[in-house]
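Mods, move this if it's the wrong board.
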Amino acid sequence: MVNLRNFDLNLLVIFRAIMARGSIAGAAEEIGLSPSAVSHALARLRVMLNDELFFHTAEGVRPTDRARELSADIERGLGFISTAISLQHQFVPSEAKRVFTMQVADYVSGFLLPRLAERLQVEAPGVSFDILPFSISPESVWDRVDMQVRLTPGRLQPEMVRSQRLLADEIVVLMRRDHPRANDPMTAELYAELPHVKLSQSATGTTVIDDALAARGLERHMAMTVASWFEIPDIVAKSDLIAIAPRRLFSLDPRLRNLKASPLPLEEVVFSFDLCWDLRTEREPGQKWLLKVVSDVFKEIRT
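Not the wrong board. Structure tokens:
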């Protein structure tokens, strides 16, 4: 067993910063030390852990296999320490001045954000939200994202991620009512054959439809890919392109009522909206409040 009295835990903070930034200079900037001080700290850590930990490259530093193995455990340990300390402080929503960062899938934003804004206005007027799309790589922002609301559970560092099912909904295939194939039964083969307008993967955070088709030896014909759901109904109404949507969107977007909707012929696929968060911070009072708020909003939606 390591004698922690002889181990400087600050070295682990420096290790985490080097892993996150990929350079000595970047780590120094993040934690407020000089590059020289970070280099000296890394030298001490190499001796203590008996590994080189990082190799210098033209782009910065590259972690060794041992450093990658250690990274998850160090992240988890520092997260638990941070949470244990922060639990001493109460989170009072009506008095709080705090910014939460969330990634929200495009389909979900119409359900969540108006209700979230309404609740904040009453319950936590000093709290702000920075809403990020999935067009920003989840890997690049996971260390500063409080929660994700997405169509499939997060796969980032799975040993550190918890998820909760918020809502499951039927998927429907949309086409204009006078589409040339409007009277044909919607089969998986027809669905794959028809030209699609598709919401980009970066907006949804999932490839579940394409994975289900691939399992059947099929592939969609992508005529157009767009960044936002709100462009899709008008495109479908004025062309022979088809699209998919959760049925609940019919209550939010009146344009859909002018389109024909057929059940998606991929029985195993549903719109499953999931809330994902980092287990290292789940006991922190502000995070617990946010988890309850988002869960409550989706309870309202379900009813």
